[in-house]
Fold this sequence. Notes:
The protein is an alpha+beta fold and 291 residues long. The protein has helices spanning 14-29, 61-78, 80-83, 88-97, 111-119, 135-143, 157-160, 177-181, 199-206, 220-230, 234-237, 241-265, and strands spanning 4-6, 34-38, 104-108, 128-133, 168-170, 184-188, 210-215, 271-276, 279-282. A three-stranded mixed sheet has the order 1-8-9, with no helix packed on it. A three-stranded antiparallel sheet has the order 2-4-7. It has a three-stranded antiparallel sheet with strand order 3-6-5, with helices on both faces. The model has no long low-confidence stretch (mean pLDDT 90).
Amino acid sequence: MEKELDITHYFFSEGWLKIIDEVTFFSKKSRLVWYRGQNNNKASNERYPLLSGLFRQPFSLEEILEWEEISYKRFLENGYDLHKTDNQWDLLYLMQQYGVKTRLLDWSESFAVALYFATRNWQCQNPCSIWLLDPLRLNEIFHNLDELKSMSKMSSFLEERKNFTKSMALSPRMNTYRSMFQKGFFTLQGNTKQGLEEEENGILLKEHVLKHISIGPDLRNDVEMFLELSGINQFTLFPDLTGLASYVNQWTTVDLMKKKTHQETKIEVCKMFRRTPRGKAVWVEDENTYK
């Protein structure tokens, strides 16, 4: 009797394909799209608000501004031999990329990159989030600008920061390999403790400039397949020895698992099927694709 093999997990689920449709539609109707991934591991209300690291702290605005100035000056002075950066805005971008709490919020031009960060260390207690943003519309609505904001090399971040009342989409210089490979951009948070989705009475959500996608644990297999097909892993996003070491560990583990599975199933002699909402469906490869 011919052995049957369930290969449902070889295919994208209908739930995942619906998400891809939503993401694709948003990208087609927008001039430009940025994506942000959040794992929501310890979020009390299922998802984190779109707050920068600096403004997530439980302090008053005055205390936050003081923290910002102290940490900025310490990074500048203590690390100058390492970063050799005099431009105040370039230094701020560098601080964000290496984990200092700043008023910047990370975004990427790549949906796959955002998906990687949303599911990195994801504990599946809460659904993870992918946020989609049209940054040009954000600047148009909040600042009457029709472009991303580029900060002048001559401008002073420390002097100007008290005048930031609303969030703004920035066009930073790609000053590290990480920022280049992650296709990174930033929104600059204004002096408010509101998440981007709450600012100005939630106008960005109301105007469909900002969109939230929830990804539950049932889609974990879809995410892993999508990232693999997209060529996204630790080394592509962190192109250094640490990223390479993490990638090698993961790749070796997955490769040995695949080898074991192939040896045990002998897929070539099995009758393959997949489970769908409409019932069990036999799967046969299209032989024309081998010609």
